[in-house]
TrEMBL record, chain A:
Protein localization: Cell membrane
Lineage top rank: taxon: Bacteria
Main location: membrane
Keywords noted in UniProt: Membrane, Transmembrane, Transmembrane helix, Transport
Membrane-topology annotation of the record: Multi-pass membrane protein
An annotated GO BP: transmembrane transport
Species lineage: Bacteria, Pseudomonadati, Pseudomonadota, Alphaproteobacteria, Rhodobacterales
NCBIfam families from the UniProt entry: ABC_perm1
Keyword Nuclease on entry: no
GO cellular component: plasma membrane
Family: Belongs to the binding-protein-dependent transport system permease family.
Keyword Transmembrane helix listed: yes
Protein name: ABC transporter permease
UniProt domain ABC transmembrane type-1: residue ranges: 26-222
Automatic annotation (TrEMBL), chain B:
Family: Belongs to the ABC transporter superfamily.
SMART domains registered for this protein in UniProt: AAA (SM00382)
Native source species: Ruegeria profundi
Signal peptide (UniProt feature, chain positions): none
Entry-linked CDD domains: ABC_NrtD_SsuB_transporters
Domain ABC transporter: 13-240
Protein name: Sulfonate ABC transporter ATP-binding protein
The keyword Nucleotide-binding is assigned to this record: yes
Keywords associated with the record: ATP-binding, Nucleotide-binding, Transport
Pfam families reported in the protein's UniProt record: ABC_tran (PF00005)
Length: 237, 264
């Protein structure tokens, strides 16, 4: 226990003294995951919304598939992206393996299904509410997508945060495609894994505390926002 | 006003049939419906539930597809007419969205149709004026009374200048006094805009007070039992409802409803 207390104090000191290495790692984590969420949103939101309003054969299958992809194991995603980006892989010429870009790609693969599936749910419910009105306007179902996305913005922020929570806490994919290279691709989760196995508990604990802080903040934001969205819906009744 | 121009009917139904297939066998929602509505008419559809009055309105709006006969709106199929923005539709419940302000609710069709935001603002203030809701654009629906909500819903249907206004029991949920007031306002709006209006109701006084033409319908199968051209003048103060002409028309509507009533 003595040991834990010392390590914990050292960890706090690292955070409070603004340890350069620590904050560089935090910053890289945030950068990678925010970029990944941004790209995932650009792909996932229109995709989810289109799936919500369009009617075509195979739509059900696609929705089930998308929901299933929400639970992709990160290590397997890492492996697949690794195979794509490795020297002999189809995208090997881009020389992206072991770069932050590779990590962003892996996280995009993980997060896009989450954002698309949640968007699909939200937009489908909203489109149901608007259905008669939209039909009476004689517009194609797809042309209502921008309006639907805008009206659902509060609920969609929740989807983004859920995606971000997944990306920032994930370790399996980024450690494979990023390689956990010091000062290049070392992020919070991969550092914690490495430093713990090396016995450098102070740095691991400090990063762990920050990671938990971020996770708690994101979850708090998600529940506040869903509560607000819910209340706005209830006021109608 | 050019009154000489030959008036093509706005809506023309010929032997219109609509049969729904249900688990309990086919249901004849509409059978052999023949009707023509001219430009500027105020037509009420009245009858007990299941008589097909709402179904007929929805056929005009291309929200339902007839299974037989012909139906034209402005000389086109209902679906073509819809794509040409022929009508605005006022639904039974006001159907305003609680997360949008009144102005934003009215803008919904305009946003989807891609109007510029300057044009949207201009139209919103124009229609808010028409329904006497000036200054309420920034309010949310729940901050308005039921009657005001229904007026906002009418404003939304008017926003894109359709010449035909289809209204499905818009005032059904409102109390008598509010309803009287809205009826008066609706007549004023109709006189000012010269729209053609199709209006579903199950209130005899409302149908007689508002309409130039009253279509009486019966259920099983849904059909028209009487079409009454109202002898009442266009100018109608509320107390016209005590006049002998009014009472006579109301009587004829009641008779029509009774005749079509299969005892059950």
């Amino acid at each position: 226990m003595q040991n834990f207390a010392t390590e914990f104090n050292a960890a706090m000191a690292l955070i409070l003294n603004g340890d350069a290495e620590l904050w560089a790692i935090v910053l890289l984590s945030l950068k990678v995951s925010l970029f990944a969420v941004l790209i995932s949103a650009l792909i996932g939101m229109p995709l989810g919304a289109a799936l919500a309003v369009a009617r075509f054969p195979g739509r059900r299958v696609l929705i089930v598939l998308m929901n299933a992809l929400m639970g992709l194991p990160p290590v397997v995603v890492g492996l697949l992206v690794y195979l794509m980006l490795s020297r002999s892989g189809p995208l090997g010429v881009l020389e992206l393996l072991y770069t932050p870009t590779a990590m962003i790609i892996a996280q995009v693969v993980l997060v896009t299904p989450i954002i698309a599936a949640l968007t699909r749910q939200v937009i489908e419910m909203l489109a149901e509410e608007y259905s008669e009105q939209l039909r009476s306007l004689g517009v194609s179902r797809l042309s209502s997508v921008p309006v639907l996305l805008w009206d659902a913005r509060l609920a969609l922020v929740t989807a983004l945060l859920a995606g971000f929570g997944r990306a920032i806490a994930e370790v399996g994919a980024v450690i494979i495609v990023g390689g956990n290279i010091n000062h290049v691709t070392r992020v919070m989760t991969t550092t914690i894994a490495l430093e713990t196995s090396k016995g450098n508990l102070a740095l691991a604990l400090a990063l762990g505390a920050i990671l938990i802080g971020i996770a708690v903040a994101v979850t708090a934001m998600v529940s506040t926002l869903s509560l607000r969205a819910e209340q706005e819906g209830l006021r109608h009744a | 006003m050019n009154t000489e121009s030959t008036t093509e009917p706005v809506i023309e139904a010929n032997q219109l049939d609509l049969t729904f297939q249900t688990n309990d066998g086919p249901v004849h929602a509409l059978k052999d419906v023949n009707l023509s509505i001219n430009k500027g008419d105020f037509v009420s559809f009245i009858g007990p539930s299941g008589c097909g009055k709402t179904t007929f309105l929805r056929c005009i709006a291309a929200l339902e597809t007839p299974t037989g006969g012909t139906l034209t709106v402005n000389g086109m199929t209902p679906d073509e007419a819809r794509r040409n923005r022929a009508y605005g539709y006022v639904f039974q419940a006001a159907g305003l969205y609680p997360w949008r302000t009144i102005a934003k609710n009215i803008k919904l069709p305009l946003e989807i149709m891609g109007y510029s935001s300057a044009e949207q603002d201009e139209r919103v203030s124009k229609v808010l004026d028409l329904v006497d809701l000036n200054g309420f654009g920034g309010k949310f629906p729940w901050q308005l009374s039921g009657g005001m909500q229904q007026r906002a819903s009418i404003a939304r249907a008017l926003a894109f200048d359709a010449d035909l206004l289809l209204m499905d029991e818009p005032f059904g949920a409102l109390d008598e006094i509010v309803r009287d007031h809205l009826n008066e306002q609706l007549l004023a709006l109709w006189a000012r805009t010269e729209k053609t209006i199709g209006f579903v109701t199950h209130s005899i006084p409302e149908a007689v007070y508002l309409s130039t033409k009253i279509v009486v319908m019966s259920p099983r199968p849904g059909r028209i039992t009487d079409v009454i051209d109202s002898p009442l003048p266009k100018e109608r103060p509320l107390d016209i409802r005590d006049s002998p002409e009014f009472i006579e028309v109301a009587h004829r509507v009641r008779e029509g409803l009774r005749a079509g009533h299969s005892d059950d």
